[in-house]
Design goal:
With 372 residues, this protein is an alpha/beta fold. It is built from twelve helices and twelve strands. The chain binds beta-D-glucopyranose and calcium ion (CA).
């Protein structure tokens, strides 16, 4: 985020504080005042930080539609107890819609009870509550992406790479020796991505051999440590590193850099997310590919839904799955797409909307299509 954008974001938050202070516990008098409270699981998460920045921009854009918007942010530092208190605080400050990125996606009951008592709708995002919890009340929604799709796409990227580069099988035993870097235990995007990437490779006739896996909680530094251990246990046998997100793929690369491996001795690395750092690594051919987790599309869908929930207008235009869910599609990114995505970002430093049709793939969005 550039300096200007950071300042703009700061102003939105400050405006929010002023507005909230003046309205206290009361519900907003006017339904065109959208007071959004955003609670997210941890401020150190690269992907979530950018997703929240996108959301700030999206909600601010509605000012042009004669809607007064304000936003309050709370990060829970990885504690569900802290997040429960923060949600109470946001409701007490007068929020009339909440966006919640749960710390523990299996434990939303206290937050749901608080919201229901105060009649404040919740849009959960990124960390998907279990289906029964989302049915606890009819003003609960979820915006995210289908985890299996990202695993399948990462698997397809691996299949394409292995098919076109026989040298990836460094020891020429006809099998690909791989390791996995996994996100948090219990997160839908960790377990499901891992299962699907492996299944997709197998279904496409790739012989694979798992050498190890490390749990690195989405985190680059933890991934570096896990990777250092796996390298020491397997000497030079690792041919492919599958990471549940870009930050962990970059952590794996860091480990090899730390050990001064030459480029020709490196395995192939694949990530998921398409964060700015991830895209740069794909462009520079450090990462062989990634799968774009459409934060811009998710933020846009959340803002649209939040506005509709508060103003009562536009709900009929929103397409839900199972009445309460909005899933944005993933798409595959190799060097060519990474270059385009980064160029596009440079030419419009404001948030660029990516949920688009890449010329090479049909990634459909429920918000229309854009071409590069
Ligand atoms: C992203 C990760 C992120 C996690 C946080 C996942 O969808 O791929 O990068 O750390 O969500 O919940
Ligand atoms: Ca091999």
């Amino acid at each position: 985020m550039g300096m200007k954008r950071m300042m703009a974001a700061g102003i939105v938050v400050c405006m929010g504080v002023q507005l909230f202070c003046s309205c206290g516990k009361e519900q907003p008098k006017e339904e065109r005042q959208v007071h959004m409270g955003v609670a997210y699981y941890d401020q150190s998460d690269t992907y979530i930080n950018t997703l929240v920045a996108c959301l700030k921009d999206e909600i601010q854009d509605y000012e042009e539609d004669n809607v007064e918007t304000a936003l309050l942010l709370r990060s829970a530092a990885g504690s569900q107890r802290i997040q429960n208190d923060q949600v109470k605080e946001l409701i007490d400050a007068g929020c009339n819609v909440l966006c919640v990125n749960l710390v523990d996606r299996a434990d939303p009951s206290e937050i749901i009870d608080l919201a229901r008592e105060n009649d404040v709708p919740i849009i959960f995002f990124n960390r998907e509550p279990v289906a029964e919890d989302l049915r606890q009340w009819d003003r609960l929604y979820y915006v995210g992406a289908v985890a299996a799709q990202s695993g399948i796409m990462q698997g397809e990227l691996a299949v394409e790479l292995i098919g076109s580069n026989p040298s990836i099988d460094r020891n020429k035993d006809g099998k690909i020796q791989y390791v996995v870097l996994e996100g948090e235990a219990g997160h839908q995007d960790a377990i499901i991505r891992t299962e699907n990437v492996v299944d997709t490779m197998k279904q496409n006739g790739i012989e694979i051999e798992k050498l190890g896996n490390g749990m690195a909680n989405w985190n680059r530094a933890q991934a570096q440590n896990q990777m250092l251990q796996m390298i020491s246990q397997n000497q030079n046998k690792i041919e492919l590193v599958l990471a549940n997100n870009d930050d962990m793929a970059l952590g794996a690369i860091d480990a090899y850099e730390k050990l001064n491996y030459t480029e020709s001795a490196l395995p192939v690395f694949l990530g998921i997310d398409g964060t700015d750092v991830g895209l740069e690594a794909v462009r520079d051919q450090k990462l062989a590919g990634t799968v774009y987790n459409d934060k811009e599309g998710q933020a846009e869908a959340m803002a649209e839904l939040a506005i509709a929930l508060v103003t009562g207008e536009g709900m009929e235009k929103i397409e839900f799955e199972n009445e309460r869910y909005i899933y944005l599609p993933y798409f595959k990114v190799t060097q060519r797409e990474a270059e385009k995505l980064l160029k596009r970002r440079q030419s419009s430093p404001a948030i660029f909307s990516v949920h688009c049709q890449l010329s090479s793939q049909k990634a459909e969005s429920n918000q229309g299509e854009y071409n590069f």
